[in-house]
């Protein structure tokens, strides 16, 4: 039992640190997931929860940092009794969220491990039950973990350093792009290719007749069978990007966007866009016009035509603009505004508005 307890202790602490760091890698993505939960709770329990949307990024940073710090404290066996109860509180909270999402089909991805590992709601709930099981083993066998690796002032110093590092990682990611990009629009990906299946999709057809259920790889010609469900046999071969579409008043622009060299300024929402950077964007666009790489510039936004028209005149933005779904733009880049460099649909570069490049740097990527 001593060995089992120590394995559970190491797993529990390590998983909390891993989960926290994955979220701190992309705190904006975690904040978007929290906003999704707040909207669901507002529909089911009252509009009070909508008030938390304004502090979603702060909550993202705090909760993710707490996960890391609690994991470190557990591995150091520092203040074990208090740390174990704090861990239980978080685990019960997460288990409630994942069970609620799974049972009522509310949030299809809990974001437990960010975009690095996608889990279905029930898989997320089972993961939380597994963690609760680890917690129970450690809690009821603490006699095997009496040795503390950091006592007194030394323990406080370790926890302080862990807190500072965790918060620092998250704060930097908030002001720049994620350290590791796990989204479909990461640098190196071919958007056009990811919009198509990687192989021919195969399906099975679930049919019923007189209370009998049977699977068919080909749709049955016997009309006595009634269709129930179509299930993909190789879902991993399906398109990784299914909702990418760009348009303007003249029609669809998606295919044209994926041709040639394009410098795209993404303005997710004019209401929340950092306006102080647009002088730099304008200067960059003027530089790019002189480039021998034939780079065309454009803007994509999810704001309404009236809102964006007023905005572009306010910031003197004189480039063609197009529209896309807000969720798509948030997946494309965690910056509002942000830059994306495309070459025939391949993402060659992505830049936060704190890291605006010069034309020479863009040319080197093409």
From TrEMBL:
Keyword annotations from UniProtKB, A to Z: Membrane, Transmembrane, Transmembrane helix
Keyword NAD: no
Membrane topology of this protein: Multi-pass membrane protein
Domain Methylamine utilisation protein MauE as annotated: residue spans: 2-138
Transmembrane segments: 7-24, 55-76, 83-102, 122-140, 152-174
Primary localisation category: membrane
Location(s) in or outside the cell: Membrane
InterPro entries in the cross-refs: Methylamine_util_MauE
UniProt-recorded name of the protein: Methylamine utilisation protein MauE domain-containing protein
């Amino acid at each position: 039992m001593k060995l089992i307890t120590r394995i559970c202790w190491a797993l529990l602490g390590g998983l909390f640190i891993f989960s926290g760091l994955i979220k701190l890698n992309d705190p904006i993505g975690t904040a978007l997931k929290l906003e999704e939960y707040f909207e669901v709770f507002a529909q089911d329990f009252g509009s009070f929860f909508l008030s938390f949307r304004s502090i979603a990024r702060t909550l993202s940073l705090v909760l993710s940092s707490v996960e890391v710090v609690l994991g470190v404290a557990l591995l150091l066996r520092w203040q074990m009794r208090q740390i174990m109860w704090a861990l239980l509180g978080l685990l019960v909270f997460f288990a409630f969220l994942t069970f609620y999402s799974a049972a009522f089909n509310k949030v299809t991805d809990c974001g437990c491990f960010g975009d690095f590992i996608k889990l279905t709601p029930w898989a997320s709930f089972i993961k939380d039950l597994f963690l609760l099981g680890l917690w129970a083993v450690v809690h009821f066998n603490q006699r095997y973990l009496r040795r503390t690796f950091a006592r007194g002032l030394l323990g406080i110093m370790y926890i302080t350093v862990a807190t500072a590092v965790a918060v620092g990682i998250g704060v930097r990611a908030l002001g720049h792009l994620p350290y590791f990009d796990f989204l479909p629009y990461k640098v190196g990906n071919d958007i056009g290719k990811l919009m198509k299946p990687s192989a021919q999709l195969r399906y099975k057809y679930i049919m019923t007749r007189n209370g009998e259920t049977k699977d068919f790889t080909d749709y049955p010609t016997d009309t006595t069978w009634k269709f129930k469900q179509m299930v993909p046999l190789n879902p991993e071969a399906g398109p990784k990007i299914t909702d990418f579409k760009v348009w303007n008043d003249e029609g669809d622009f998606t295919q044209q966007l994926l041709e040639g060299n394009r410098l795209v300024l993404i303005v997710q929402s004019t209401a929340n866009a950092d306006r102080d950077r647009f002088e730099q964007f304008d200067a960059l666009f003027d530089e790019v016009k002189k480039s021998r790489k034939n780079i065309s510039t454009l803007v994509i936004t999810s704001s309404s035509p009236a809102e964006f028209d007023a905005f572009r005149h306010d910031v003197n933005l004189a480039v063609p603009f197009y529209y896309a779904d807000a969720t798509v733009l948030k997946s494309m880049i965690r910056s509002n505004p942000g830059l994306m460099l495309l070459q025939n649909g391949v993402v060659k570069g992505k830049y936060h508005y704190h890291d605006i490049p010069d034309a020479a740097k863009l040319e080197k990527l093409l």
